């Protein structure tokens, strides 16, 4: 009898126990077998995370696992899709940290169960560099129900889910906890900002409302201003965003009141993983009602118009110029 490879051992010990969907075939095959629901289209998305870029090297493995899956689920939600499953590619440095891997796998399995997105397979390799991972997620929408990034038109409302800027402020809190805006922030507020950076909340509950009422949508991953600008450019129209209408958490509001410069961080920073959408004006009440019924708050933050670009009006009513509207890798 021939002993298995190191990768076989990793699969057997850490990932086979969490890959319980029949589609995963026990991870004994080199591919999964997935049958989409009748009358549905497949939606596919992929995000990569690298230590030192997307997460801190000393972040807990459980947080890394949750973030890796949830950022992909956020993309599915923005397209009006519900998850069907995911594939994981994981590059690990040597020597193998088995405690890290065990905690990672347990958290990934727990989130897969929580969000109904079973792990169907993937690949595990070694790397001389930092830990890096990539998840490919599969979702389904009723045929013709895909919510594009290209559907905005002049005269629509721009809306966003949840609150904006918490994750970007959470990152700044991690990097500089003593800066003025955070100095007197209560511990509960600090914990809220830190958690929003570490653990995105994919808005899967909003998928039905988006399909029914939104003209276009995308998730806010690189910064609200930059991402809305990209969405409108893809649709061939312009828009106006009012900073006074952007929803803020209590923690973000307190930090910005103390240090107004943090408003630019909130509007241009990444990792919110909320949903930005445009909705025809006559459909806004129905969209907001459907979102409320799904337990997801949404706010009108501006409107679209003929033209190009995104004009941002500050809280004082004057044009607001941001040095950086979004995060960019390059």
TrEMBL record:
GO biological process, one term: thiamine biosynthetic process
Pfam families in the record: AIRS (PF00586), AIRS_C (PF02769)
GO molecular function: ATP binding; magnesium ion binding; thiamine-phosphate kinase activity
Assigned EC number: 2.7.4.16
Domain PurM-like C-terminal: 154-312
Enzyme class: transferase
Coiled coil stretches, renumbered: none
Binding site for Mg(2+) 3: 30, 75, 219
Membrane-traversing stretches: none
Binding, Mg(2+) 2: 47, 75
Binding site for Mg(2+) 1: 47, 123
Classification via HAMAP family: TMP_kinase
UniProt function note: Catalyzes the ATP-dependent phosphorylation of thiamine-monophosphate (TMP) to form thiamine-pyrophosphate (TPP), the active form of vitamin B1.
Other notes: Reaction mechanism of ThiL seems to utilize a direct, inline transfer of the gamma-phosphate of ATP to TMP rather than a phosphorylated enzyme intermediate.
Entry protein name: Thiamine-monophosphate kinase
Organism (species): Azorhizobium oxalatiphilum
